[in-house]
Amino acid sequence: MIAGHLAKKNGYWYMILQLRDDAGRPKQKWLATHLKVEGNKRRAEELLFAARRKYTDLADMQKRNNGIFFSDYLTAWVKTSQGKVAVGTYEEYQKCIRNRIAPYFEKRHILLSSIRASDILDYYHSLYAKGLTGNTVLHYHVLLRKALEEAKLRRLIADNPTDHILRPQKEPAVSDCYSPEECRKLLGVLRGDPMELPITIAVLYGLRRSEVLGLRWGAVDFERGSITISHSVTVASIDGHRQRIARDKVKRKSSFRTLPLMSQVEALLRETVIQRYGTKEPPAEDYVCLCENGCPLMPDDLSLGFQRILAKNQLRRIRFHDLRHSCANLLISARVPLIEVQQWLGHSTISTTADLYAHLEYSNKERNADTISRMMLE
């Protein structure tokens, strides 16, 4: 089995594996466990053992190249993604490979060395035939391309067959959202509810669920009147166990942003400080959004609590994430320039914002139509 050991870095456990490059030279590979050092050594050792086995499996595959089934390669490849990508992303990769992609190719007994573009295309056609959307097919295409590109780099195959396939077309997403009136009604029924703070923040700031739950007191600056989005909390399944994953790095660089502290939110936050800490300063590392028992609020609990409030008050059912779209609708309804909407929501590019919310700009089109019509009558 491939050798490896644990190391401490910035208060977290890391796994260091002793591998070899394509030329046979020794090299070290660092993998993150996302586990804090204190109290997690045994769990880190378990992850290290699992990682050593995974990389040993892939190394063995390289030695017996001609006999590797494509499905087996995919299963081994996705395991090596652990530590390279975020925990939630790794969980999604595993789910797609295990449940959707590998079973298809396993039934057809296709070898990695003989995989062709036509085999990949046949797979895509089978997905479309089942009614899957172009966005889902594109997601699987991206995974297959990554897996086959690594196989090419490892010289397991001479060519990446996805290079000869047109990228599946992404279908424009049409987001559901509340109107300004529906947002006002929602904020009205929230008063006094345990979920008032996180839901109010989601409506007014358009934060992702992970960003709402990742908000800590150190990110709230009452003196300057600002709130900084720099931490996220998600839940992922690691080796069959659901775990809460806290990260100082948000989704991407553009997601890191500082926003003005609105008066409604400031009032709720100050009230919360008094209830929990009295006259003391809240610890910077403490989370803002907690359960009634004082424990950090879990993502599923927040979504279920939101649905409970909608049902109780006969409000139109939307997802918690649709509050983010509702915030965008508020901004666009107020004719805020799209570039400012992008910066407020933390999108990576303005094209992302435009693709998501082009349908919300119909009032602007009506205004343009009136302008053109008046010009023709002059």
List keywords for this structure.
single chain; 378 residues; alpha+beta; hpI Integrase, Chain A; 3 domains; 3-stranded antiparallel beta sheet; 14 helices
Number of DSSP strands?
8
Tell me the radius of gyration: 25 Å
> How much of the sequence is in beta strands?
5-15%
CATH topology title of the largest domain: hpI Integrase, Chain A
CATH class of the largest domain: Mainly Alpha
Q: How does the overall form come out from the CA principal axes?
A: globular
Question: Which architecture of the largest domain per CATH?
Answer: Orthogonal Bundle
Q: What's the name of the CATH homologous superfamily of the largest domain?
A: Intergrase catalytic core
Q: Topology as H/E string?
A: EEEHHHHHHHHEEEEEHHHHHH
Could you describe the 3D structure shown?
- It is built from 14 helices and eight strands.
- Helices cover 49% and strands 13% of the residues.
- Helix 2 (70-79) runs antiparallel to helix 3 and helix 12 crosses helix 13 (350-357).
- The model has no long low-confidence stretch (mean pLDDT 86).
- The protein starts with a strand and ends with a helix.
- The strands form three sheets. Strands 1-2-3 form a three-stranded antiparallel beta sheet, covered by helices on one side. The chain has a three-stranded antiparallel beta sheet with strand order 4-5-8, with no helix packed on it. Strands 6-7 form a two-stranded antiparallel ribbon.
- It is globular, with a radius of gyration of 25 Å.
- It has three domains: 1-63, no CATH class; 88-171, Orthogonal Bundle (DNA polymerase, domain 1); 180-367, hpI Integrase, Chain A.
- The chain is of the alpha+beta class and 378 residues long.
